[in-house]
Amino acid sequence: MAGGQDLNERSLYLLKTLVERYIQDGQPVGSRLLSKDPQLKLSPASIRNVMADLEEMGLIHSPHTSAGRVPTVSGYRLFVDSLLTVKPLASSELDQLQHGLKGQADKASDVLNKASKLLSDVTRMAGVVTLPRRESVTLRHIEFLPMSNTRVLVIFVTDDQEVHNKIIHTHKQFSPAELQQAANYLNSVYSGRSLAKIRDLIVREMEHDQRQVNQGMMDAVNMAQLTFSEQPNDDYVLSGETNLMGFSELSDMERLKQLFEAFSQKRGVIHLLDQCLQAEGVQIFIGEESGYSAFDHCSLVTAPYSVNDEVVGVLGVIGPTRMAYEKVIPFVDVTAKLLGAALNPK
Amino acid sequence: MAGGQDLNERSLYLLKTLVERYIQDGQPVGSRLLSKDPQLKLSPASIRNVMADLEEMGLIHSPHTSAGRVPTVSGYRLFVDSLLTVKPLASSELDQLQHGLKGQADKASDVLNKASKLLSDVTRMAGVVTLPRRESVTLRHIEFLPMSNTRVLVIFVTDDQEVHNKIIHTHKQFSPAELQQAANYLNSVYSGRSLAKIRDLIVREMEHDQRQVNQGMMDAVNMAQLTFSEQPNDDYVLSGETNLMGFSELSDMERLKQLFEAFSQKRGVIHLLDQCLQAEGVQIFIGEESGYSAFDHCSLVTAPYSVNDEVVGVLGVIGPTRMAYEKVIPFVDVTAKLLGAALNPK
DNA sequence: GTTAGCACTCGATATTAGTGAGTGCCAGAC
DNA sequence: GTCTGGCACTCACTAATATCGAGTGCTAAC
């Protein structure tokens, strides 16, 4: 529905003020109200003509005959894409952000929590931050502990001070000493290298295999392979979900339930957020645009965040379609940048 | 409001059927309906007399003049304490439970997740399980990694295959070698012992201090002290919150919001659950009994669970006061026992 | 002590009417 | 041709009103 071209400036300005007005008041905007706009020197009747055009193009819509107009998804889309005048961040908010993320360098996960909380606190909607991909993060230390049978508990620490652990199933049972040896070997070879690099090395070592390497090393590499096998991001930190309760758009219990169920399933939300990884900067899904029915009455404003110029995750704000985009967009943008900076290893 | 004594059997039976009926239908129960009970061979008029008595005692209550009666909190209390006929668990549910918790021995936290999920799935309400106190669990392995300045990342693994990590602040900066030494020492002395025992030993070692121990050991013990310092349980696993949406009792958005906020704050809920640790078996909070306003319209059915005959945590079900106690109580009870068994180290 | 009868209360539901914000359309003004 | 005033019309919203019926409390009789 790309129909913005054939609109003259006046219609666009009218759409803009209508959307702004609707976002402000939450009520259908009528021609009389718009006619009071000082820049729009038109009578209600003329405005109605313009609105009729806009409605024909599917940009606005009347809930019923005798109500004003409300933006459709396409209307919002045109608005955020071309009409929006982005408000610079209030300095107090910027302070809050910088201050909030700048706590003494804790574990990465603490920073993510803070970011999510900030997003929700400032916007009074829900904040979400995906866990960073562990690609460029480097390995500090790895360790194996035997469990029953062929199962091994592997613990490894990365330089973002995160402790990861995982249970792997080996092809045979190893003694504690063997495991210790394997860990020693891996620590000596891999520590200080990025996980991406390690995966790379593993593949290579496994290629020119049994030739001259001894069995112990092979076992170690095998275990490393099980440990560092690519696993998709499947988790995020969500804050302020409860802020979403009480938006009239979500007062329908069935809808709300679906939304919260989506939050706890995580899968669908992650899928949605993953789509924003490639985006250059702020990306927005408005209402049904997301294609995820639980989000039908919500908008999602996201921005990828990067560490060392590499995109590692996405953060965003979830709220009703009727949200103050002009404030949320710059806020999400800046938060993403600050989060990236805060995660940067010193 | 202990006023159950001066009630004759008939009144009690009437109260019982009234509560059962109300739990079943969710609508105020009138005298006409009750008069149809085969065991209660009374006319509606007589029943009204009895009901008037019950109302005077604060056990039931009329929403308005021309409605039937509804149990009050005291009424529910009397019901669950003395009148309830507990239904034995359906064998299919028992199967589901045993099967669900008996997955191959994973990490303790996986089992907790499963238990919580089971509680919510079977009851179609919310399930909650507190993390087990780490008292009787024994230490397998401890390790220190330096962070910036005087901060040290400590990792320790317990025999329930849980990996714990924590940042401690030491009084001076240690070299990696020193940390390694400290860890070696602690592993040799403490591994295989329960955390409670370890705390005990730490205190003793710190008492007859500088005398003959060398500085390295002192440092190690100090770090151990920081690591294993008593910290109250402050987390739980919650499942099926969304099941609570859609109960008419919680259809009020403000209430629902408060409840969900309580869930994410965690503190208040933990406090409530802690009170159930001492209880012998199933403990129930009905409505305002909990003293926690967010739970005013909910009931909480809990049972402590034990490993090695020591109570380590609590699990429970959260739902509207109008819940099928006769099914939930035995279910919570059995789940607690099975969870304890599943957590038992093999 | 129990019951039948009866007047009464009051929530729930439907009907009706009135109000007003907003519309679409048309004819005349600029 | 574009804009505007005028006008009939629509329709959600509100309030007022009537009706219904489930359930009650009370009383008098069994």
TrEMBL record, chains A, B:
Domain Heat-inducible transcription repressor HrcA C-terminal: from-to ranges: 110-329
InterPro entries registered for this protein in UniProt: GAF-like_dom_sf, HrcA, HrcA_C, WH-like_DNA-bd_sf, WH_DNA-bd_sf, WHTH_HrcA_DNA-bd, WHTH_transcript_rep_HrcA_IDD
Keyword DNA-binding set for record: no
Domain of life of the native organism: Bacteria
Presence of the UniProt keyword Glycoprotein in the record: no
Domain Winged helix-turn-helix transcription repressor HrcA DNA-binding: from-to ranges: 14-78
Keywords of this entry: Repressor, Stress response, Transcription, Transcription regulation
Any one Pfam family match given in the protein's UniProt record, by short name: HrcA
SUPFAM superfamilies, per the entry: GAF domain-like (SSF55781), Winged helix' DNA-binding domain (SSF46785)
Its job: Negative regulator of class I heat shock genes (grpE-dnaK-dnaJ and groELS operons). Prevents heat-shock induction of these operons.
Family named by the database record: Belongs to the HrcA family.
NCBIfam families linked to this entry: hrcA (TIGR00331)
Protein name: Heat-inducible transcription repressor HrcA
Gene: hrcA
